[in-house]
Amino acid sequence: MRRRFYIQPHCLVFSAVLIALGLTAKRYDHNVFVFDITLASLSAVFFIAMAFRYRGHVRRTVKAAVSGIKGINKSYLEKFSVPVVVTGKHGDILWYNTKFRESVTNGADCSGDPIAPYISEKDISLFTDGKGVDVDLGEHSYTVLASDVDDGIVFYYVDDTEYKKTAKLYIDTRPVVATISLDNRDDFERNSSDDDVTLALIRVETIIKKWVVSCGGVYSKSSAGRYKVIISEKSLCTAISDKFSLLDRVRSIGVSDSSQIVTTISLGIGRGSDSLAECEKRSLDALDMAFGRGGDQAVIKDSDDYEFFGGVAKGVEKHEKVKARVIAKSLTEKINESDNIFVMGHQTSDLDAVGAAVGMWSVISKTFKDHRVKIVVNQETTLTGLFLKRLFENGYKNVFVDPADARKQVNDRTLLIIVDTHSPTFVEDPELYEMCKNVVVIDHHRMMVNHISNACVFFHEPFASSACEMVTQLVQYINEDALGSYEAEALLAGIMLDTKNFVLRTGVSTFEAAAFLKRKGADTVEVKRLFSDSIVTYRQRAKLVAEAKTYRSSAIAIADDEMNKQSNMRLTAAQAADELLSIKDIQSSYVIYRSFGNTCISARSLGDLNVQLVMEHLGGGGHQTMAGANLGDIPLEDAKKKLIEAIDLLSEKASNSTASIKRRNIQ
Asked: Are 40 and 15 in contact (CB under 8 A)?
């Protein structure tokens, strides 16, 4: 019906042209004249009839619209104080009141036009549920409601422009609290002259000040290298769209021409609260999260949700022996308050998890001899079968307990020490964790949003090479004589695993821990034997490396069906990912494989590309140089597509950041 209405004027013109041609042809050919006049008359009669039919359709629909409103007649609909328009079922405008013509169409006649331009091109079905839909037309904002009637729809326009302006102004001017901290001030002071440090701090503060002024906010220096900032919600949204270029500007500062130190800051931002005090608390929580993920990033906390921006620089090792000593004292107090103790790592435990657990068992059992302590390990899924076999052969079999047996021994005075993970979903036995009221966490992985929040002692150091390094530090403050040669070798094996034989993520503390373990009898030859592989595993690893494909300076390998049948595929994938990094021009490596019915990815890098961010995009996590993800039961090729999308996203962010720094350095 609507289409016929649109072509009606053109058809009438067509009929008029035929009549004119027929009159002209009358002089030359009577038959042509008769044909033209007949065709013109029939077309005119047809489209005139259609016009009458369309008017009838309009009258019926308007009548139905009016009758659909109890007690209302057409004259009352005309006098409505809000714009009203009646359309057909397909959205063609049949009738409207004077208010609609004056306010919405600016006096133009829109009969027969589609309603779409007057509802912001939105689907008509959105308007008929009675909830109202926001529609912006020019400088006016409307809430449009609609009701179905026979053969049509009635739209009601409520002009709430001023209300929406006020609401937007309220939202845009909501206060946001940010806490900004210089990540590596201690490195400045330790490795640079006072003049260089002062100059760098002045430059950082100048950049922060300019950023705050551009945001229309205020700031104050709360302590050395830390600033408190208050800006508006609108300014925060601008900073988000700008990807927090403030981080790039600060990162481009060097302490001196000869210094290799990269200046970085972290921002903790609190938003979405009715009080400034709560926003400040959220900003501090967000700042702790930024520190826990290595710094050089902005973290926004809104209620319980976190958003992350930045984090492209390498983490900087921090020497905080005071922290380890304080943690050791707190841990000693918790042990003294407990009856029995369990030490537990993560699922599919590796040498770092089991090694750290063995170290904790040794220091507790030999220092607090009246306490029962056991290591919880699922021997069916662990990746440390060779290591456990060696321990069992040397009298350590009773040290370990299955998760099911451990759950039977839990009471109110049970202490659970979790090592090498801080996620409640990744622990060896989540049910055991839920049963224990007293929990201690010792972990070196970068902070995840879903972390254990009820720990009575939370020892988290993302700059440490491994959980074994952290445990070695604690042992030296609790009882340095508590380690035997087997325990020392277990801790050294964990350090060697996570540092790839002291290549990645090593710092001064790493070598100090290794030296201490060597003095305690750790045999490096025996530790090396723990990493021995069978000929089958070696061939699988070699095949993965040989068949890997390169993409944007990354190597991607996919395990075939035969490989995925092997029980140690997880370990083989990790080893293959490590080996792929030895290839020239490869910055990161990924091995996609199947494990326990799920598709997983093992990711590694040398630090130039943050694989933690890549894996977090896929629902996983880990370190800047070592991470992983479990994608669930999806095909391997689908996992590869998702991985490539994540690599593209991170590479784009990194290139934008690098380009921004180069532009500023040129300027």
From this structure: yes
Residue-wise pLDDT for 15-37, tens only, equals 666 666 666 666 666 666 667 67
Cα gap 439→416, rounded to integer Å: 5
Cα 454 to Cα 441: distance, rounded to the nearest angstrom: 10
Q: Count Cβ atoms within 10 A of the Cβ of residue 60 and give its class: 0-12 exposed, 13-18 middle, 19 or more buried.
A: middle
Sequence-ordered list of residues with C-beta below 8 angstroms from that of 346, at least 6 positions apart, any chain:
353, 420, 421, 423, 426, 427, 428
- Is residue 325 within 8 Å of 359, Cβ to Cβ? no
For 530, other C-beta atoms within 10 Å of its C-beta total 18
Greatest C-alpha distance within the chain: 127
Task: Identify the CA nearest to 180 among candidates 152, 215, 145.
Answer: 215
Tell me the C-alpha distance between 330 and 423, whole Å.
21
Residues 600, 606, 607: CA angle, nearest 5 degrees: 95
CA-closest candidate to residue 161, choices 86, 108, 77, 83: 83
Cα–Cα distances (Å) from 278 to 228, 281, 285, in that order, read: 14, 5, 11
Reported as half-sphere exposure (CB side, CA atoms, 13 A), residue 401 has a value of 21
Q: What is the C-alpha to C-alpha distance for residues 178 and 243, in angstroms, rounded to an integer?
A: 16
- Residue found by looking up tokens 């030490």 in the block: 343
Helix count (H) and strand count (E) of the chain?
24, 23
Residue-level length of the chain: 667
Strands 549-551 and 554-558, sheet pairing:
antiparallel
- 3-state class (DSSP) for residue 38: helix
Which position has the token pair 């700008």? Answer: 242
Q: Look up residue 659 and give its two tokens.
A: 């380009």
Q: Which residues pair with 589 in a beta bridge?
A: 555, 604
Q: Is 415 helix (H, G, I), strand (E, B) or coil?
A: strand
Helix (H) or strand (E) run with residue 306 in it:
strand 305-310
How far apart, in whole angstroms, are the C-alpha atoms of residue 422 and residue 122?
Answer: 46
Separation of alpha carbons 244 and 453, rounded Å: 28
Cβ-in-10-Å burial (0-12, 13-18, 19+) of 31 comes to exposed
DSSP state of 166: H
Record the pTM: 0.65
Q: How far is CA 666 from CA 259, 525, 572, 635, in A?
A: 19, 52, 46, 47
What is the tens place of the pLDDT at every residue in 425-473?
Answer: 889 999 999 999 999 999 988 887 788 888 999 998 888 889 999 999 9
